[in-house]
Amino acid sequence: MDKNMNVDPAELAKFSELAHRWWDPESEFRPLHQINPLRLDWIARQAPLSGQQVLDVGCGGGILAEAMARQGAEVLGIDLASKSLKVAQLHALESGLANVAYREVAVEALAAERPASFDVVTCMEMLEHVPDPASVVKACADLVKPGGWVFFSTLNRNPKSFLFAIVGAEYVLNLLPRGTHEFAKFIKPSELASFCRQAGLDLQGTRGMEYNPLTKRYWLSGDTSVNYMIATRKPA
């Protein structure tokens, strides 16, 4: 692997070990299965997906990519975890989805190869796993067409998010494997907004995501203190 590539080998190894469990809704990826309809609906309400060219950056096993393909989009999912991509490809084949494809390529490399090629770019739960998140944001901005949408989701960095996303989710409720997240890599909304502005993206809105451990229910709200999503648009 290119030592200059914007990737943490330990993060790749972590997700590769779990790759065979991506599509098990009761596995470590259960939270992603549960929040996927919320994310999809929020994206689709702002950027209708049918007939659009869509890129999913850090697609993992393809949970969001497949969901967007089912909405009628032509989807390309990219990731650097080979095992996860193999799982994604196999699941798409089993599902009979011809309008989703996958590639093992860095987002920066794809941006150099295919600038301004996509109507919508999504990058969910990925920025907190790379050494240089600003580089990913810039590449996403380069990949989207003028007037197109770019969506990000990540974790805020504050005492509450440490308590909820690491102590609560990984150690108390066992929603995620221990070591899934590193607090120092969490990104404040103001930081992500700055990355977006520097990349030439206009902010369109944010949403927070909350979880009730008693009802085991997720919902979107205006509270961005832990999990949050941000919608941006490239000027036409």
TrEMBL record:
Enzyme Commission number(s) of this protein: 2.1.1.222, 2.1.1.64
Entry binding sites for S-adenosyl-L-methionine: R39, G58, D79, M124
Pfam family, one: Methyltransf_23
Reactions catalysed, as given in the entry: a 3-demethylubiquinol + S-adenosyl-L-methionine = a ubiquinol + S-adenosyl-L-homocysteine + H(+); a 3-(all-trans-polyprenyl)benzene-1,2-diol + S-adenosyl-L-methionine = a 2-methoxy-6-(all-trans-polyprenyl)phenol + S-adenosyl-L-homocysteine + H(+)
Gene3D superfamilies, per database record: Vaccinia Virus protein VP39
An individual GO BP term: methylation
Keyword Transferase (UniProt): yes
CDD domains hit by this protein: AdoMet_MTases
Hydrolase found in the keyword field: no
Top-level enzyme category: transferase
Family the entry assigns: Belongs to the methyltransferase superfamily. UbiG/COQ3 family.
Function: O-methyltransferase that catalyzes the 2 O-methylation steps in the ubiquinone biosynthetic pathway.
Protein name per its UniProtKB record: Ubiquinone biosynthesis O-methyltransferase
Gene name of the record: ubiG
